[in-house]
Specification:
alpha+beta, 217 residues, Pnp Oxidase, Chain A, single chain, 7 strands, 33% helix
Length: 217
Amino acid sequence: MIFHGYYAEIPRAEIDRFVRSQELGRLVTLGQDGTPHLGLYPFVYDDGAVDLHLVRSDEQIADLRARPRCLFEVDETLAVIPSYWVHPEYAGSATAYHRTVIFECEGTVVEEPAAVAAQQQRLLARYQPEGGFRPLAPDDALYRGALAQLAAVRLGITRVRAKFKLGQNRPVETRRKVIGELERRGRPNDRRAAEALRWTFEGAEPADGAGSPEASS
């Protein structure tokens, strides 16, 4: 992925807000033979780390024990637009809009039931704050079997790379035109994409360059 400055210079507070708004993220680990392994998980993001849980027999647990360096990626696919919204003839103006954050991490794995239960409480506090379940306890027969099969994974973040590809290399007038086209087209994510493009000039200070081919960047 190419991290052009006009896409990548995102305030950390906005990165944090975006990551916390997403419900699933991708963990990338490396197998013994060099094969990347990918998993999609619910998570808690706080204090410079990501918390998630895996089954102890998951291949990614073995990866993390042997090779703790990993990636955790959160993204949001917004829209693909036709070239003629930007230029009447140049096909290279077709592009896709998305927000992506990649965390480079060092992973730790804990299997102690009390630690796993504590992490599950944090996950439940995020995803099911209304309750509706019996409190977790490692010695409760209701939970003992499941907790014995899970591992708590904590990913300490060592580097953050963001790419919010939202037309920042186009003049504000062009972005306004694309916003109008998105709102008229009305696909399921188009309104969300329009709001994201609007953020680039109402909620941030993007670079207003003359533009460059976007199709492959």
